[in-house]
Amino acid sequence: MADRTLPWPIQDAIDIMAGRHTLSKYIPPVLWLFDDYTKMAGGTGPLVYPAAHVYTFTGLYYLTDRGKNILLAQQLFAVFIFVLRCFNDCFAAFFLWLSIFCFQRRMWTLGAVAYAWGLGIKMSLLLVLPAVAVVLFLGRGLRGSLRLLWLVLQVQVAMAVPFLTTNAGGYLGRAFELSRQFKYEWTVNWRMLPEDVFLSRELAVALLAGHVGVLLLFIGNRWVARATAGRSPWAMIPDLLRLRSPFRTRREEEDVAGRVTPDLVMSTMLTANVVGLLFARSLHYQFYAYLSWATPYLIWRAGRAGAGVWAVWILQEYAWNVFPSTDLSSAIVVASLLFTVCAAYLAPAEEEMHADDGDEQQLSAATESSKTR
């Protein structure tokens, strides 16, 4: 970390070690003095993250004695997977996991706020938004889910008020820059493609189409269908377009909500995340924070194959630690993501897994009984 001299009230700055961006220290009580979000920049480029990034790293700034306690900063980041590289993805991933935990415990409002804060740190969490919408719809019904999604938007707006009131276009353009041009030299997943193909619009369109198509496949055949006892989600569309609940009775809505188990919540949200990463325009090394803990669970969930979990995890760990990326490492990254998505799609329903557990327990009991005779 390095100190910089900046005009008041931005008197100090934190250089995140080996990171891509510099975070200036912004003092919350005087945020309204900033006239333009686009003027916030450091030695490694402009600030391109939403407002929660500023608030989160402001807290880190004070926690590390105004950026002087480098060892404490390293220890804080070592809790995640970076150790020395202090990217903000670890905090976004933390709030993703916190939102999953809250939804599993049916703390819907707290989960929505946790997700909103993570999204406010980095827009990568947009990849999980379709799953969040599905989980909230199944768990809280149409009206309840719309209220919670509205809360997510309100949190985003509230955090950004100091910047929206002065230069809304500048804030939205920087914090949620969807037209960003990715650099071939940093890609982890598409290195095996020629650079002209990587930069082509055709590839971008194909990836977007694949992303949407696979998400619809999961929504239609897995996420909603399993929670509604096989009912087609496409038959619900006319009612949803009229903002009317597709569940005819309160009892039906409660039955569906009862099927929103902790397993369904985690499987749905982690699958949406991996699908998004598979079709991502470009992945950088810090994106491994969203994947490292998800892959073992999703592959285990598909069939509890211990050897398969270890094999994919080892290959994935190898590929994400090759720098710079190579044709081989990027091919392994994409192949492991594809394998994980396919495994998640082919994974049995939760009740089938419990049925298998029951069969195994009965077989084990019968075996023990025969031994005692």
Automatic annotation (TrEMBL):
Pfam families: ALG3. It is an enzyme of class 2 (transferase). This is Dol-P-Man:Man(5)GlcNAc(2)-PP-Dol alpha-1,3-mannosyltransferase. It is found in: Endoplasmic reticulum membrane. Pathway: Protein modification; protein glycosylation. The chain crosses the membrane at residues 47-64, 76-100, 112-138, 150-172, 203-224, 298-316, 328-347. PANTHER family: DOL-P-MAN:MAN(5)GLCNAC(2)-PP-DOL ALPHA-1,3-MANNOSYLTRANSFERASE, NOT56 - RELATED.
